Amino acid sequence: MSPDKGVDTAIEVARRAGRPLLIAAKMWEPDEVRFHDEVVRPLLGDGVTYVGPVAGPAKDALLEGAVALLDPLRWPEPFGLVMVEAMARGTPVLAFPQGAAAEIVDPGITGFHCRDGAHMAALVDRAAALDRRACRRRAEDRFGARRMVAAHVALYRRLLDTGTPGSAPVSAGAV
After folding, report:
1. CA torsion, ordered 4, 137, 65, 110, to nearest 10 deg
2. Where are the beta strands (DSSP E) in the chain?
3. 109 by DSSP, 3-state: which?
4. Structural domains in the chain?
5. Which DSSP state fits 75?
6. In contact, 130 and 109? CB cutoff 8 Å
7. N or C: which end of the chain has fewer CB within 10 A?
């Protein structure tokens, strides 16, 4: 429920797109509670519902049932696990292309990069039309357990062989 997560922008996007919105977010820190009470709570209702934090099968079901994950971050998040979790469930992601989102979201396959909230709202229907199986496959290919273990093993081997990680960084996209 941090202001950096852009929940208020997601609400604006859903309303512009004429879609309901379920907000799943933790709200434990004083700043999160304050942001919720002052900014988000007045915007709830009329198709916008705060469901609280979700995990496990409930999170999987929420993501699987979504048309798209709205991720209008206001900061360059270094890695957006929730984006990968959504894509692993076949749910496309609409995000601003900053931080890891620029690399995680494959436009036209796993979602779209959006310029602003209005652009994000305009892309909701296009995201809904994406092939959810292709979205899932891309997430598995790039972030699945086999892929990630192989990347870690390659890094460990380089460390053992050279004592340094090498000049090329190990990322989700390259081994």
Report:
1. 40
2. 21-23, 48-50, 69-71, 93-95, 111-113
3. coil
4. 3-132 (3.40.50.2000), 144-175 (no CATH)
5. S
6. yes
7. C
| Segment 21-45, tens digit of pLDDT | 999 999 999 999 999 999 999 999 9
Q: CB neighbours of 71 closer than 8 A, spacing ≥ 6?
A: 6, 80, 82, 83, 93, 94, 95, 96, 101
Q: Are 143 and 105 in contact (CB under 8 A)?
A: no
d(CA 153, CA 95): 31
Predicted confidence at residue 168, as pLDDT, reads 52
Query: CA-CA distance, 169 to 155, in Å (whole number)?
Result: 9
Does the pLDDT value for residue 165 go beyond 70?
A: no
Rounded Cα distance between 70 and 124, Å, is 9
Q: At residue 174, what is the residue type?
A: A
Angle at 149 between CA 159 and CA 163, to 5 degrees: 0
Specify the residue for token string 């909701």: 124
Residue 5's closest CA among 29, 25, 19, 28? 25
- Copy the structure tokens of residue 110: 């796993």
pLDDT-based confidence at residue 164 (cuts at 50, 70, 90): confident
